[in-house]
Every structure is written in C-alpha cells, then in structure tokens.
Design brief:
The chain is mostly helical and 145 residues long. It has six helices and no strands. Helix 2 packs across helix 6, helix 3 packs across helix 6 and helix 5 crosses helix 6. The longest helix is centred in the first third of the chain and has 18 residues. It is globular and about 30 Å long. Keywords: Electron transport, Heme, Iron, Metal-binding, Signal, Transport.
C-alpha cells in the first residue's frame, strides 16, 4: 500500500513538474482566507509554489489538463473520497467502489458526471466541490489505468 501511495504521489508530482502549472488559487488577488477555514485546498508540505504566475501548456499544447493540475486533486480526494473508497482507493473491499484502475473503465467526461451527480449509491458532489475541482479529480482518476 505504501508503494502504491508513493507511486501516486510521484505521478502527481511528475505531472505538475511537466505541465509547469502554477499553484495560483482561485482567490489570488483577494484577501487571504481566515486560518480557521476548513474547506481550503492546501499544498503538500515540502513543495514550493512555482515562481511563474501563468501556467505553461503541457506537452502537445493541451491547456485543458494544465488548468486541472493547478488544483491538488489528490488532496481533494483525501478530503472527500477516502471515507467510502479507502485511503488506497481500493474500495475498502468493494469492487464497485474500487478506483485504483478506474481510468481504464471510465473516461474523464464520465468521471466528471459521476462525481458531480453521483449515482449507484454514490452521492453527488456538485454542491460541495467547484467545477474546476471536480474536473481536476476526474483527470487525476482517469490516469489510473
């Protein structure tokens, strides 16, 4: 399990490094939120925000993926999904809830729909998560094949 989490962390880090995206938040330019806010996305410890204020498109020029990687999808998954899907996304023994290879079963559009609207016993998250966050999670999960 530790190897899987390390692999996931390495893949996310590599994707961020390759995309050259910035860690610019949706609230940039506004007053910082209060320290007690429980719904803010945090950057993993030990990583520094890139100096560049604008994202560089990923290889191939697909700017859609670089905006999704600016949001820490893995952190959002940990905050919102592990209660049902487990900390290793193994579904806690339920094949129906297992997300470890979900990218080989569903594309990003299907994942966005599932996360936003729920279904099959899963609640929808469109009222809890922003559209950009749902898209980032879907892109992150689609890479799991």
């Amino acid at each position: 399990m530790k190897v899987q989490m390390a692999t996931i962390a390495a893949l996310v880090t590599a994707a961020l490094a390759l995309s050259g995206c910035s860690a610019k938040s949706a609230t940039e330019g506004q007053a910082p939120p209060a320290a007690s806010s429980s719904n803010q996305v945090t950057q993993p410890q030990g990583s520094a925000a890139p100096a560049s204020p604008s994202p560089t498109p990923a290889a191939g020029g697909d700017n859609k993926s670089s905006s999704a990687t600016a949001i820490n999808a893995e952190s959002l998954v940990k905050q919102n999904c592990i209660a049902c899907h487990g900390d290793t996304l193994d579904g806690k023994g339920s094949e129906k809830k297992n997300l470890q290879k979900i990218g080989s079963k569903m594309n990003q559009e299907q994942l966005v729909n599932q996360i936003a609207n729920g279904g099959g016993g899963m609640p929808g998250f469109k009222s809890k998560l922003k559209e950009e966050e749902i898209t980032a999670i879907a892109a992150w999960l689609e890479a799991k094949k």
